[in-house]
From TrEMBL:
Superkingdom in the source lineage: Bacteria
PROSITE patterns assigned to the protein according to its UniProt record, in alphabetical order: RIESKE
Gene3D superfamilies named among the record's database cross-references: Rieske [2Fe-2S] iron-sulphur domain (2.102.10.10)
InterPro entries, alphabetized: Rieske_2Fe-2S (IPR017941), Rieske_2Fe-2S_sf (IPR036922)
UniProt keywords, alphabetically: 2Fe-2S, Iron, Iron-sulfur, Metal-binding
Rieske domain sequence ranges: 6-110
Protein name, as recorded: Rieske (2Fe-2S)
Record-level Gene Ontology MF annotations: 2 iron, 2 sulfur cluster binding; metal ion binding
Entries under Pfam families matching the protein: Rieske
Source organism (scientific name): Acidisphaera rubrifaciens HS-AP3
């Protein structure tokens, strides 16, 4: 969309070591989620590559109990946080869809139409 951006949130709104989900872009169907580790953040489309279902089992619940992996609520597939690579489960070897983002002045933004 020619440079139009959508602000997801302030980095401080994502708990350090945690994740936060975001609804779809206007007219979209699938939301996004972000995982934070200190000053580092990654953003993915909230859809498992196996079935396309949302990953979270409750709002903002995207991580394993120990917080070291992203987990799919439907079948327990586990993904590396840093690159979305599926380590175990029916989609092993596949990846989550990463979303390019900008972190400027403490705000996490994506293209206005990011997601599906």
């Amino acid at each position: 969309m020619d440079g139009l951006r959508r602000t997801l949130c302030a980095l401080a709104d994502i708990p350090d070591g945690g994740a936060r989900g975001f609804g779809p872009a206007p007219g979209g169907f699938t939301g996004l989620f972000a995982v934070r580790r200190g000053d580092t953040v990654v953003v993915y489309v909230n859809a498992c590559p196996h079935l396309g279902v949302s990953l979270d089992w409750a709002p903002d619940r995207f991580l394993t109990a120990d917080g070291t992996r992203i987990i799919c609520s439907t079948h327990g597939a586990e993904f590396r946080i840093e690159d979305g690579h599926c380590l175990r489960g029916p989609c092993a070897g596949d990846r989550l869809t990463a979303v390019p983002f900008l972190l400027q002045e403490g705000m996490v933004t994506v293209d206005a139409d990011a997601g599906i």
